[in-house]
Design goal:
The chain is built from 19 helices and eight strands. The protein is mainly α. It has a three-stranded antiparallel β-sheet, with helices on one face. Strands 4-5-6 form a three-stranded antiparallel β-sheet. A hairpin with a 4-residue loop joins strand 4 and strand 5. The longest helix is centred in the first third of the chain and has 20 residues.
């Protein structure tokens, strides 16, 4: 007998797979308690064999409401639900088909210019919610499990020219100026820049560690500091806190400041994320290998077996940043002065750049000063290349023998 009365209420006690389950039937009637107990045992047995008894009248709006209360919801889910709920809200999940998804695509394209990629993101969120419902055993299967997405056309990624960079930096101020320099010299994403902390910047070794990245591949990657970025960070260096802040508060949205800077600079409209593409394009034109570019930007190295055992060492990254600086200086020297005058602003070279050109070509470690000086650079270079010198000494000893 598995029913016991506690007070005026019957309780159900039973075992399954060695686990004891106890539930209150909520009634003092013995017959109702037996029916409720049979229902409880049936539900527990269905969970044991993963048998889902879905509600055939479950609306997608109700399912979306349950999804929004979970811990897996993200801001982009809420954004795309604004377009999904007007179409699928009153539709039961059991009636959802792939043809309805195609009808939603046509409805989104009607009377407006929307790219296929935008509609693909909407349907991807819809399919994600349905998969979540399957995991939570709210529905037996995902009706859009094998939904084919429309082919997305590749769009041209805009790249900031050196002349436009000078005009943009001349118009940017305060925290936006620092963010632009960091993005151009490191290729970091906007979220990575605004989440970067001073504790993750090593001025002795001139290395910046990215500890808050959008992708797992971008976590804890190391990026050597360029001369310009090292001098800029040294001038505003703090002991702790965020690298980028505005009046002591974290920076989250820069849309208005960015738009104002573009207008004051008098250049074409580009996104802040295009600065990341500019960093990658400049490295490519400077002759940096693809594997090194991917390591600097935190991209995935692919699924090949060889990529699992491939690691880009810090000296190779330093050489990549040196090539980037040399390429930018060469482009700046080839800029026609008339082009800058026509833009309405004249950008003069700094005294440090003129002195550097008079001394001749130098490496990054030889040029950095004020916390990024020669002694610290040689010390960092010695640590990075210590293993190489030991190998050379071993080869010399073998030759003597």
């Amino acid at each position: 007998m598995s029913l016991f009365k506690r007070g005026n209420v019957w309780w159900s006690y039973f075992y399954q797979d060695g686990i004891r389950y106890q539930n209150s039937t909520g009634t003092s009637n013995r017959r109702q308690a037996e029916v409720i107990e049979a229902k409880l045992k049936e539900e527990q047995n269905n969970r044991r064999f993963q048998i889902v008894t879905a509600d055939p009248h479950l609306l997608f709006s109700e399912l979306a409401a349950e999804f929004l209360t979970s811990a897996l919801v993200r801001p982009h889910h809420i954004y795309h639900l604004k377009f999904l709920l007007p179409f699928f809200g009153d539709v039961t999940v059991a009636r959802m088909t792939k043809s309805m998804a195609e009808e939603f695509r046509k409805r989104r394209h009607a009377g407006r210019t929307i790219k296929e990629a935008t509609v693909n993101r909407d349907l991807a969120v819809l399919r994600h919610i349905l998969y979540w419902a399957v995991d939570e055993r709210l529905i037996p299967a995902n009706p859009l499990a094998r939904l084919k997405m429309a082919r997305e056309r590749r769009t041209r990624r805009q790249v900031l020219s050196v002349a436009e960079e000078q005009l943009l930096l001349g118009a940017a101020q305060d925290h936006l100026y620092t963010m632009i320099v960091v993005a151009l010299d490191t290729g970091m994403r906007r979220g990575e820049i605004t989440g970067q902390r001073w504790a993750d910047v090593d001025f002795t070794r001139k290395v910046l560690y990215v500890t808050r990245s959008k992708t797992p591949e971008g976590e804890s990657r190391e990026i050597p500091l360029s001369q310009r970025l090292c001098q800029l960070l040294t001038s505003i260096r703090q002991s702790d806190g965020l690298l980028i802040d505005y009046r002591g508060k974290p920076v989250r949205i820069i849309k208005r400041t960015w738009k104002t800077a573009l207008k004051n600079a008098g250049i074409r409209h580009i996104r802040f994320h295009d600065l990341r593409h500019t960093f990658n394009t400049r490295l490519m034109e400077a002759g940096v290998l693809q594997e090194i570019r991917m390591a600097l930007m935190g991209h995935s190295t692919g699924g090949s077996v060889h990529s699992t055992y491939t690691h880009i060492e810090l000296p190779a990254k330093r050489q990549a940043i040196e090539k980037l600086e040399q390429w930018v200086k060469q482009q700046q020297s080839e800029l026609p002065s008339k082009g800058v005058d026509n833009a309405g602003q004249q950008t003069d070279r700094t005294e440090s750049d003129a002195a550097a050109e008079s001394r001749g070509p130098q490496t990054l470690e030889e040029e950095v000063t004020d916390g990024c000086g020669l002694g610290a650079s040689r010390e960092a270079e010695g640590r990075d290349r210590g293993s190489g010198r030991r190998t050379q000494r071993q080869e010399a000893a073998t030759t003597e023998v």
